[in-house]
């Protein structure tokens, strides 16, 4: 469970719980049937694409993939972590399922002064925040490209189609702007000599199953965010809006019990930093760090989930995280 502020925007838009990975059916790429594409897309690069559905359009039984603009960035490989702007809408009724340019109320999302705004983080051709079938055609494309994907809901959304109120044969159009990518070993971690933790902070011992965190006996939890760099990396600096790929373990200060660990799942987690997509303590504590860093974070309640119970974590909890930053895009 990545410490998000809210359910993942894509999964929430498709009415699927945040912890459920969408199991999509396979599909075959095609240039379309005799009817051709059902949608045309216009708009300047970097701006919201405008999707126009053709009158009496009938979606092909095979997935249709079209490169609308070819980028000049790195070629995307299977498993790469992608940061993207996305619009998805139905063919029938033209209802929007996802739109990273607009709020749920249809208002434009304004970028911060440094250009950061909420975007989609997903893996190419891997079940992640998006169905595998939707991201499969992105393998082999280049960063900077705008890609249109058309197909039936059952092929592109799998079980989420019915949960979103669609029939299997309803058509769906996706437009992806691929902003950045990172090729990261999802089972990897940070290497380097680890510093001893500071007085009053939990101790951290690395094991084969990840960090073992010990809360200092008799110490009250800090009232403000505490952070310490345990291992110093030499990678790029983390900036607002990036997709981060991390290994992490989280425990509660109250009992020192692990409530989540990507190490124990043998798979890294990915999220966007600096846009309010995660709890404030992560946004504040990880921006400015470097890829290759191992960071100890102690989050008071107002930097974590506050007075709200979350996934079995009691309301008002101080949380302790050990985070390995293993990639960024």
Automatic annotation (TrEMBL):
Stretches the record annotates as Disordered: 29-49, 189-220
Q: Where is the PPIase FKBP-type domain?
A: 241-329
Q: Which UniProt keywords apply?
A: Isomerase, Rotamase, Signal
InterPro entries in UniProt: PPIase_dom_sf (IPR046357), PPIase_FKBP_dom (IPR001179)
Q: Quote the catalytic activity from the record.
A: [protein]-peptidylproline (omega=180) = [protein]-peptidylproline (omega=0)
Q: Which Enzyme Commission numbers does its entry carry?
A: 5.2.1.8
What is the designated name of this protein?
A: peptidylprolyl isomerase
